[in-house]
Design goal:
The chain has 17 helices and no strands. The chain has about 450 residues and is mainly alpha-helical. The protein folds into four domains: about 90 residues, no CATH class; about 100 residues, no CATH class; about 40 residues, no CATH class; about 180 residues, no CATH class.
Amino acid sequence: RPYDDELADRLITKNSDDLNDEVSAIINNLAERLSALTTTIEQWKGLGIKFPKGGKVLPGDLLDWEAGLPEIETAVETHLRALERWKDFATLWPDKCENTSLAGRLDMTEEFVDLVDSLDQEWREFELEGMEIINSWESKGFAMDVWRSRLTEEPRSTITWMKREEGHYQIAEIIIQDLMALDTSIDGEEEVIRRTAILREFDLNLDLLDEMRDYVDTRSRRAARHRSMLESDWMEMVRKGLVSDVATASLSLSDFEKLIADSQTNKRGSGIPIGRLEEKIEEEINEWYQNGFSVDSMREMLRENPVALGLRLTSIREAVSKHEQLRRRVSSLDWTRDPELSIGVNLDLSMPDRLESLSSRIQNLMMDLAQKKVVDPEFKFIAWRPRTRSRPILMPIPKNSVEDAMEAILEEMEFEIEDDNEEIGEPVGIEVDEEPVPIIEPATSEISELQVK
């Protein structure tokens, strides 16, 4: 009767010699089943399952327990899986697992599974957020395998950690860009490659980043100084007319050095007689000096850029050949309106390299003087004219031919007497016979060859 009253009544009605044996067999079977069920329940309890009313199975409840055993097993398996995950959350996220009343309670399995599922969902969201950060830095060349492993182990704290380190990665990214921008054409790129690999593959800290930044700054300053010296050498060559200016900003230091070296080699091997050209120009300048011209500025041009001066010689020579015509044009102006200005004009007349500019300014001078009032009606303008200098033996060339020219101009304006019979409209001053200004044969071939080069 302890197991089943109906079964007991049915057996009592039987009148069989084997009744006792049958009853004993049934009792043993039920006892074994009860023991097995009790053992299973105790095992579940050991795994953390909490049954209503303690999970004690009475003999009279055996059949009911057995009838509901499939559902109980399913619920227990579901709860055990959730409980195992819950234990991970309790270890990693204790602040989110403070409510432990649902854990293990078989009758609250559905509520407990919902709680664990919500934690799982939050875990996955953290993983997705972390993967976005990892993929972002991985796409920029950083090795993120360690961070990916950390994210798998515990995403929430890993994300917090990654966000703290994000500033270091931003600094490292800038340093890597600066490293890649360094000019390695001379020293080689091995060190840059090594340092770039360290920044991309190692854990970053401020000491490492500071050392890398110091290295980049030092290399950048050194390269800037080197480029500045190369630019200075190049501009000196351009200024002297030895090379044509080209864009050098995009050249590496090695290419820049090669450009300068090749240009110097070409200069030495090109056959351009720079020295001989300078000698011929110097001869022509000295000839003009002996004819009274002021040539200091031309000598300065010869020292700084002989080629450029050589290219101007044709126009200067033509202006010198038209000096008499230019004097007449200047003398026809009314200088009584501005005697001081006439001194500067006379100075220009004495300088071969200014004659062309003076000729182009005649019209403007005429208009300017026309707008001024007469300052000195007695002023007589005497235009400067070339005169052969005396050549005493061992007489050095004066250091300042401009002062000599000014003194000669003032003396001529003071002592020369105007010819009263000069026609109206003729230049004021006495025209005297003068030696023709010699036309020096230019070093045309040398200049032409230079232009071609």
